[in-house]
């Protein structure tokens, strides 16, 4: 099955919430864990037990594993492999983007068949030019994986680049969406190339032709409510995946509490969607 088809099935079964797995130092401490590879492994085990089979997608943030060096990356590799045995899809947030043989190297690491850090999908940065992502896009397609390309992020530092306009008046962010839409043309039930659009501000993008998923960071602790997300993405044809990390993770370290927090937030999203109709 294509990534788009697997994602559509996962969302239909478990709802749209994407649970972030962000083991930053303060959270490890708050869970009573040590800020080292051992604490990281315990954190990962709790997230696996809490989220596997109960949410459609999890999004490990690679940086918080990488900061522990080779031992942390080994924990990430084990976590991705463990989730691969469950119905929950993995979206590795590494925001890779480069050119030529270096992009080939990232594709080998994350996206090709048998990739050692292979997840169901990977975030990519297109700001060396969307076409520079071609090795990653090809590798993902061949392996049945997906990608999510940064388009319009919520951080204020992104606006000068992402909202800059070309000769035709189209913003850089919109050009990223349009390039993703071109890759998704004809995909059913949706294409495999998603975009990342922050949920904490009005995005101003035309997503109607994307035919792919939209990853929406910012739900919960970052300030976007379920009603905000629904209002800002109403009418988007593909799967919309709101991301919550801290709001869910602060319920840990008990896996049952993590599962309950994710379920409660998912129910709020469902209620907000129903209330918008």
Automatic annotation (TrEMBL):
Q: Does the keyword ATP-binding apply?
A: no
Q: Which reactions appear under catalytic activity for this entry?
A: orotidine 5'-phosphate + H(+) = UMP + CO2
Keyword line: Decarboxylase, Lyase, Pyrimidine biosynthesis
Matching Gene3D superfamilies:
Aldolase class I (3.20.20.70)
Return the InterPro entries for the record: Aldolase_TIM, OMPdecase_type-2, OMPdeCOase_dom, RibuloseP-bd_barrel
Q: Name one GO molecular function term.
A: orotidine-5'-phosphate decarboxylase activity
Identify the domain of life: Bacteria
Q: What pathway is this protein a component of? A: Pyrimidine metabolism; UMP biosynthesis via de novo pathway; UMP from orotate: step 2/2
The record ties this protein, via Pfam families, to: OMPdecase
Q: What is its EC number?
A: 4.1.1.23
Q: Which residues form the Orotidine 5'-phosphate decarboxylase domain?
A: 16-261
Kindly give the NCBIfam families that the UniProt entry links to this protein.
Answer: pyrF_sub2
The similarity annotation says: Belongs to the OMP decarboxylase family. Type 2 subfamily.
Which protein is depicted?
Orotidine-5'-phosphate decarboxylase
Q: Which organism is it from?
A: Pseudonocardia parietis
Question: What taxonomic classification does the UniProt entry list for its organism?
Answer: Bacteria, Bacillati, Actinomycetota, Actinomycetes, Pseudonocardiales
